[in-house]
Amino acid sequence: MVKRFDVSALPVDHESAVLAGRVSIKGDPRPVIVRAGRVFDVSTQVDTISDLLDLGDPADASGRDICGVSELTVGGGDYALLSPIDLQCVKACGVTFAVSAIERVIEERARGNAEHAADIRANLEDRVGSGIRNVTPGTDSAAELKAALIDADMWSQYLEVAIGPDAEVFTKAPVLSTVGWGAAVGIRSDSSWNNPEPEVVLAVNASGKPVGAMLGNDVNLRDFEGRSALLLGKAKDNNAACALGPFIRLFGGDFGMDDVRSAELDLQVEGLDGYRLEGRSSMKEISRDPLELVRQTLSEHHYPDGFVLMLGTLFAPVQDRNEPGRGFTHNVGDTVHIHSARLGTLTNDVVHSCDAPAWEFGIREFYRSIRQRHAVATA
């Protein structure tokens, strides 16, 4: 079903912002810049969003005015909005907030069984919650807390990355597999305990420099990951399980990394059954600075097409849904809204991954479309 892009999803100050993204123009995905409500096709200057972010100042890119942002559609049409990235690796950091660390311990101890989670959660928060919240990862005080937890037989691999020197960094999704605003977001049909993860996502160019930010939903299967950390790949990487958007807000003017550090994210989940969940994640409470997470992601590796980095979330839903004591899990048909004032709103409906549109437009098809575009331009 084709639907219109909702302009209320733009940042509150979008008239003064420069946004980057991708639009499928009659089936050809092209990089675009959005300024003051107008969409400019910059594909005569750069072939990809990856190329765009490598420019000296991406916000200065110019191109053909193709439409107003209110004319964009999702699911088809002449100007169809896509996920705002293309060739970038999709990386993610986990357990970057203390409360999130506690939830990972709960998953591990409950072995994916939601019925045992409430009692474990209360016990852990009483014993170590405040200590974890106040410690800085990698410091002497963190090492002392680790020793105390080991003595109390409370240590966990999740707490290691929460307070130890090394952050958790993993690959969330393959290149070109992410979905954008308005698209279906997928959960595995064999998962009975899962949730959205509202996050700020950095766009990092090929030289390792963050050049913008967007919103993301790092959909997670808590039952899979709770059974074993070695199931992280299955818990995270599934068809349509990573949503980004609605656009990348480019750094410059009055928007920069300090705005990422202070961002407040609001989450709403609305079910077809009338269920409503609200949550919040504050980047002010992140345990590691975003630039430190970028540094650790770069490590000794090189990302020649750049990468995007999901920074983790404070949000961990415990509100009961289908049965008392079983906590929150998605139902098919849920609508997820993730909002931050200066990044906009990312909205997606939840389906089973097997029912989401098949991911068929991969790297080969992407480059076929670019070759065809150049052939038409030179004909």
TrEMBL record:
UniProt keyword ATP-binding, yes or no: no
Pfam families associated with the record: FAA_hydrolase (PF01557)
Lineage per the UniProt record: Bacteria, Pseudomonadati, Pseudomonadota, Alphaproteobacteria, Sphingomonadales
Domain of life of the native organism: Bacteria
Molecular function in Gene Ontology: hydrolase activity; metal ion binding
Keywords per UniProt: Hydrolase, Metal-binding
Family membership: Belongs to the FAH family.
Protein name per the record: Fumarylacetoacetate hydrolase
Organism, scientific name: Tsuneonella suprasediminis
InterPro entries named among the record's database cross-references: FAH (IPR051121), Fumarylacetoacetase-like_C (IPR011234), Fumarylacetoacetase_C_sf (IPR036663)
Boundaries of every Fumarylacetoacetase-like C-terminal domain copy: 212-351
Stored Gene3D superfamilies: Fumarylacetoacetase-like, C-terminal domain
BP term (GO), one: small molecule metabolic process
